[in-house]
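Chain A, query sequence.
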Amino acid sequence: MKDNSIPLLSSRSVEDLIKDIECLTQEIQELYTQDDIPFTIGWSGGKDSTAVLQLVWNAISKLPVEKRLKNIYVITNDTLVENPIVSSWVKKSLERMVIAAKEQNMPIETHLTHPTPQESFWSCLIGKGYPAPRRRFRWCTERLKINPTDSFIRQVIRENGEVILVLGTRKAESTSRAKNMEKHRAWRVRDRINTNPNRPNSLIYLPIEDWRTDEVWLYLMQWENPWGNDNKDLFSMYRGATADNECPLVIDTSTPSCGDSRFGCWVCTMVSQDKSMEAMIQNDEEKEWMQPLLDIRNELDIENDRDKRDFRRIWGNVHLFERNVDGEISVEPVPGPYTKYWREHWLRRVLEAQTQVRKTAPPEMQDITLITTEELSEIRRIWLEEKHEFEDSLPRIYQEVTGEPFKDPRPGADATTLGLGF
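Chain A, predicted structure.
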């Protein structure tokens, strides 16, 4: 029988971890007080970024109030297609951080970023017709994750001249992550601190880069969360996202851990399957309401979607290539964006799922939004102004699915059909 308890280490490893935390506390305090460069902590709500934020918070709270002069920005990015359970956890946690920081006289500010309506997942897929992301056309990461956070970081640099980015990246996460971190050691200026080759005037600080997964969990379980979260809830969320709803007793690095769970966008087609959401639905009857989201994700993730896509590229030009199927050579057009039929199909599917989960989700999740009004307005604009689909089908589809009229927030949109005068 498997042990559901919290991961533990040997007593010797615990002693080593305590010493490491003491050294890190001193290091963080020195880094914080030696200059005026603000900290920006990338916090996703996951175990690694939570451990880093907790380390920094606890270290700075030990300083006298008069020395807590530098701002600490906690930045979280919401792609608008996050796993709903994780997204809810993050938003509630940010609210607790604001209250706790004020009560404890901590110079911590929280910032929740998100992509613009023009660059959101649904505006690109349903509006422009971009196919579901693939390794050769990974259009989502920059638009949904990099651009929103980069915009905030650039703002901090403009206001302060420099910034120290504090991240929870660890070598033990994966072999590829370890290789990438090793490559960036060329820009190392001191232990755990690199210059950032992609963003001038910024340093990257990686306090737990050498920690193992079991060390992360031990720290989270044994050291109190300073903003009032219960880290056991975080542990339970990870455990619920594993196939067997179990987190084994971790005794060495060969033991599997629930830390291998991956929370990400519920629409992600960059992985073969969304194991975390599948496990949540399988392990907990109260999470079965997420099944419509998983159905859409699986419907998007098909090996060959050529029949759903236009023979023209997005700007109307046609590119031909030689295709070899079982030795048969044919000259075919490079598939372009989703056709009008399929873009309208995906719109219906998302609106249907949103309508359904609002009825079946638990009370605290019944205001869930899968596609925002601003995104719908942008999709409508794209269909009219860029696709020249003058029948203006979005309001009709919206009313057919939801039973309510679509209220476009764009000024004058309904009166003049987005300024096209018909």
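The CA atoms of residues 145 and 228 lie 27 Å apart. The chain has a mean pLDDT of 86.
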